[in-house]
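Reply to dn_fold:

You asked what the input looked like. This is it:
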Amino acid sequence: MPSIDFYVISDTAPDAHLRHACRLAEQAVNTGERVFIRATHADDAKRIDELLWTFGDRSFLPHEIATSGSPSHPLVRILIGNEPPDNFRDLLINLSVDTPADIASLSRIAELVPADPERKRVAREHFKQYRERGVEPTTHNV
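and this is what came back:
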């Protein structure tokens, strides 16, 4: 089973949780991992794609929105989409309103908990679902 980390975001800016997703993705890529950012809504996928282009002024995070399941180039380390391909299961950053179906094939899952009350409610539901699946998530206040 994967390790599951919930990041409770104290920053109330509208994109604070997405910026934290960029930081997590950057850290993972820097350690050689491949990252899948699960965004089931096209608007979320587009926004995280835009942020990854502008996130770091000293580095580039090779990423793309997944269209065929596999990256278009071997240097792409971050994919954004609905379901991760088999070779992008090191870290899944979940921006979706539901939990991934096949968590056993993932190494790590990051759930972001924004300050928004509705998103907090969704995150609490995710926490409960992971526990029901036999995984005890870890919480981090950031």
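Helices lie at 16-30, 42-54, 117-132.
Hope that clears it up.
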